[in-house]
From TrEMBL:
GO terms for biological process: carbohydrate catabolic process. The keyword Hydrolase applies. It comes from Holdemania filiformis. The keyword Hydrolase applies. One of its GO terms (molecular function) is beta-glucosidase activity. PANTHER family: 6-PHOSPHO-BETA-GLUCOSIDASE ASCB-RELATED, GLYCOSYL HYDROLASE. Keywords: Glycosidase, Hydrolase. InterPro entries: GH, GH_1_N_CS, Glyco_hydro_1. Belongs to the glycosyl hydrolase 1 family. This is Glycoside hydrolase family 1 protein. SUPFAM superfamilies: (Trans)glycosidases. GO terms for cellular component: cytosol.
Length: 489
């Protein structure tokens, strides 16, 4: 097994909309996450229904202050518990902590002339607390929490003016935190525009006359985000040349079911689509095939003068990605058993185990993904999301024996080490999520990821107290030995 390099950035990750709570405190505005409803009557594997937000859903959400059925409004109250939580991360030995800034905490509707000072001060306090704990912040500017105003007063990211509002927001953050934050990500899982367009780019599909028109709007929104990301990258380097700017995508490795060339071609198409987003942000240009696809479908993707030059000139320093599962493609997909997570639905791989929420666990797929990405781009890589959602149970004595989580991480870390031994440059690893929080896809608390248990259930019942799981001390051991001791007894 290969060795993790000196200075490897071990840590954990969260998102503001899933952990902060305090959704209407200190001047914060309403984000798309604040209208995401917990739907207990929907099967937990029906992720389309869980993610989808209709115009009627938005209208209903804006009429209520309810936090039980809108659990991202309460999260785990990191807003008031951040010192306690950071102390636990420090105890584990974190070298880095990935978090996001809630745009609506800085600009409540996204359009204000002046930022909200209380929001700015909150993040300054968090970053200073992290620095005091010798933990390097890794900060995402947009992680599924865009201002709802852009949805109710426009077409979300399909409206070009959102680019300018985002760049102004980024500029405020870069200037305010230029001495506290070194590593930045612009957009979380920018490829998720088609999995959940409302959450990612504020597109409400019912507002379009056809699925084809909605798809065209999503591509417009994607282009605007890619331009905004490049402009933010340009600005960041002007404000502090020491900043390191990364893109962030979901790595969905797709295998062919068989060696049938038709299966191989279908898998290749899926993998090529997955590479579209990194191709633009790393190579600085759209691949020919996507422009041809737009033309074939009659799509008009307006590009302002200079857009393509902006993309070319302001590419990223490193590639970060989430990895949870691999997929399988088959020409006989309609005749095969299916599995699905919040990432996608595909043919079941008989060689892999499946989690309680339908995710197929594939550690070797992570090694393959690392090699695939590094061979394609020769850029440093950072795994910023990877983890196991599980309905953890508390023992009568208060302990939580999550050996299954330890085994999950152990197998994935072994594969990262093998990729490093194979010549791949890996900067760091932040588990998703290092502390229990509200699930992005199902809005549940019971889908737990953390090394730290939070005493809240799906209906916001509980004390909110933090409790270490068995995996807490195991991960502490891993970090202390820089990945050399992965033993588990």
């Amino acid at each position: 097994m290969g060795k993790f390099p000196a200075g490897f950035l071990w840590g954990g990750a969260v998102a503001a909309n899933q952990c902060e709570g305090a959704w209407n405190v200190d001047g914060k505005g309403v984000s798309v996450a604040d209208v995401a409803r917990f739907k207990p009557d929907v099967d937990k594997k029906d992720y389309v229904a869980q993610w989808h937000t209709s115009p009627a859903d938005i209208e209903a959400a804006l009429k209520t202050e309810n936090e039980v059925y809108y659990p991202k409004r309460h999260g785990i109250d990191f807003y008031h518990h951040y010192k306690e939580d950071i102390a636990l991360f420090q105890e584990m030995g974190f070298k880095t902590f990935r978090m996001s800034i809630a745009w609506t905490r800085i600009f409540p509707n996204g359009i204000e002339e002046q930022p909200n000072e209380k929001g700015l001060q909150f993040y300054e306090d968090v970053f200073k607390e992290l620095r005091k704990a010798h933990i390097e912040p890794l900060v995402t500017l947009s992680h599924y929490e865009m201002p709802l105003y852009f949805v109710t007063h426009g077409e979300g990211w399909a409206s070009r003016e959102v680019v300018d509002h985002f760049v102004r927001y980024a500029e405020v953050c870069f200037n305010r935190y230029k001495d506290l934050v070194k590593y930045w990500l612009t957009f979380n899982e920018i490829d998720s525009v088609f999995r959940h367009p409302f959450t990612t780019v504020g597109i409400v599909e019912e507002n379009y006359p056809s699925k084809l028109k909605a798809e065209e709007a999503i591509y417009k929104a994607l282009h605007h985000q890619l331009v905004a990301s490049a402009l933010a990258t340009k600005l960041a380097r002007q404000i502090n040349p020491q900043f390191q700017i990364g893109c962030m995508v979901t790595k969905t490795m797709t295998y062919p079911e068989t060696c049938n060339p038709k299966d191989i071609y279908l898998a290749q198409k899926d993998n090529r689509m997955n590479s579209l987003y990194t191709d633009v942000q790393v190579r600085g240009e759209y691949p020919r095939w996507i422009k041809k696809e737009w033309s074939d479908k009659g799509f008009e993707i307006p590009m302002a003068a200079g857009d393509e030059e902006i993309l070319k000139l302001h590419t990223v320093d490193f590639i970060s990605f989430s990895y949870y599962m691999s997929m399988v493609q088959s020409v006989h997909a309609d005749q095969r058993e299916k599995v699905g997570g919040n990432l996608a639905t595909g043919v079941k791989n008989p060689y892999l185990p499946t989690s309680e929420w339908g995710w197929q666990i594939d550690p070797e797929g992570l090694k393959i993904s690392l090699i695939d990405l590094y061979d394609r781009y020769q850029k440093p890589l950072w795994i910023v999301e990877n983890g196991l959602g599980y309905n953890d149970q508390v023992n009568p004595d208060g302990t939580i024996d999550d050996d299954y989580r330890i085994e999950y991480f152990q197998s994935h870390f072994e594969q990262i080490a093998e990729a490093i031994a194979d010549g791949v440059e890996v900067m760091g690893y932040t588990s998703w999520a290092c502390i229990d929080l509200v699930s992005a896809s199902t809005s549940q608390m019971s889908k737990r990821y953390g090394f730290i248990y939070v005493d809240l259930d799906d209906y916001n019942q509980g004390s909110g107290a933090r409790r270490k799981k068995k995996s807490f001390d195991w991960y502490k051991q891993v970090i202390a030995t820089n990945g050399e001791d992965l033993s588990h007894e």
